Amino acid sequence: MNFRMMTAAGLALVLAGCTTTTGVARNEVEKRWLGQPAGAFFAQFGPPLADVESGSDTVYSWKGGYKTRRIPAEYEKSADGKRGKRIAAARTEYLSCAVQLTVSSDYVIRSIRIAGDRKRANGPSWCEEFLGGAKTE
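User: That's the sequence. What structure does it adopt?
Assistant: Structure tokens below.
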């Protein structure tokens, strides 16, 4: 009986150690990076700007993904297929992404919060596109 109790307790401890505290992914960035090694993130995208110890975790602030994107002017389409009146002027977008990564003592990303991003009317945001590998239209 004592052996069974010890075996059951050991099995419960092993199973409890297998659970992760990463939570449910809410966007493409979290889907891609939660539970992954922080070293892989920083190797691919560059080092963090700052870090702060928070108990056994470390919160890293990272910014990158700088890109200049040209958006062409938009025009109405007439019935005969010709270009009509201009709806929107051409413009330039200056894109970047800022995130905060909470990394456990074993250097695994436990949470990633988008701190600065450029939203799009249709399609993924710039952080989702750059860090999460989301496909653009």
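The chain has a mean pLDDT of 80.
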